[in-house]
Amino acid sequence: MSRRCELTGKGWLKGNQVSHANNKTRTRFMPNLCEVSLMSDAMGLSYNLRISAIALKSVEHAGGLDAFLLKAKNEKLSDKALKLKRSIAKKVEAQKAA
Q1: First to last CA, the chain
Q2: What is the value of pTM for the model shown?
């Protein structure tokens, strides 16, 4: 399991920890990943996703999982999130047609 957000694509960053004596030690800064269950309004199901804390805040700001996924770029989404986005888009189109 990679340390990458499934919705935003945020991964680890590398850099230096600098001490008071100005000693530099290479380190990796990991994203704050959380295992959450998000509800899809269109599908009527909840999905378990591993996302960063800032992505969870962005999902709430966008108005829910469906609205966030429909606005998101395909390159940043994981395979699981991309499949979910396609199924939500089909369901929304079917509801508009009916």
Answers
A1: 40
A2: 0.85
How far is the C-alpha of 71 from the C-alpha of 46, rounded, in Å? 19
Q: Please give the full DSSP string across 31-95, using - where no structure is assigned.
A: --EEEEEEEETTTTEEEEEEEEHHHHHHHHHHTSHHHHHHHS-TTTS-HHHHHHHHHHHHHHHHH
* One-letter amino acid of 16: N
The residue behind tokens 């390159």 is 75
Instruction: Per-residue pLDDT tens, the chain, 98 aa: give them.
Output: 689 999 999 999 999 999 999 999 999 999 999 999 999 999 999 999 999 999 999 999 999 999 999 999 999 999 999 999 999 999 999 988 87
- 18 contacts 24 by C-beta, under 8 angstroms: yes
Total domain count, the chain: 1
Give 64's Cβ-side CA count (13 Å radius): 13
CATH number for the domain that contains residue 84:
2.30.170.40
